Amino acid sequence: MFSYLVFAVLCASCMAKPALVHYSYSRAVGGGSGTSFSTDGEGRITAVRVWEISNAYITGIQLRYDYIWSARVGRTYGTVNELKLFDEEVIVQISGKFHSNYIYQLIFVTSRGRTLIVGQPAQSSFNFYPAHPDAELRLLSGRYNGNGITSLGAHWGVVFMDQNSNSTKGGSE
């Protein structure tokens, strides 16, 4: 009798829809000198700020999670460029240019096809995108020094919760 009970519980747990987590990492590009960083925040990314030196390289990056800006990475020297996302809009691709010393260009692409293009189209190209089609940008990591961003990687994620609860996207647990 006990074995039937264990079997029934096992079958019931197999039939329950588990919360699925899809996570991927776009490996960092660039030289990698300086201090390491990782952006963080609660909720979805709702805006991006990028600072650049005209005709040169990216000096700083900042992400807004829901309504709170993360700590700035790098420095605020140069021109600031900003992209505010619409409701339910997410970042689905990051491209750009890099060299052994700095990130020279960043192109953020959203789920609505909008872009933020910052920096100079010079040096080697990179293209970051999630491995899962429903994933979105969750955080950036890399390195920076006193002048600018020296390397950059992207972390993508999506969490599907049970349909009986509120659907939550954006976790990378």
From TrEMBL:
Q: Does the keyword Nucleotide-binding apply?
A: no
Keywords of the record: Lectin, Signal
Q: Tell me the SUPFAM superfamilies matching this sequence.
A: Mannose-binding lectins
PROSITE patterns, alphabetized: JACALIN_LECTIN (PS51752)
* Signal peptide extent: 1-16
Keyword Amino-acid biosynthesis belongs to the record: no
Q: Domain Jacalin-type lectin, which positions?
A: 23-158
Q: What PANTHER family does UniProt report for this protein, alphabetically?
A: OS11G0524900 PROTEIN (PTHR33589), ZYMOGEN GRANULE MEMBRANE PROTEIN 16-LIKE (PTHR33589:SF3)
> What name does the UniProt record give this protein?
Jacalin-type lectin domain-containing protein
- Its source organism is Dicentrarchus labrax (European seabass)
Q: Which gene encodes it?
A: LOC127366993
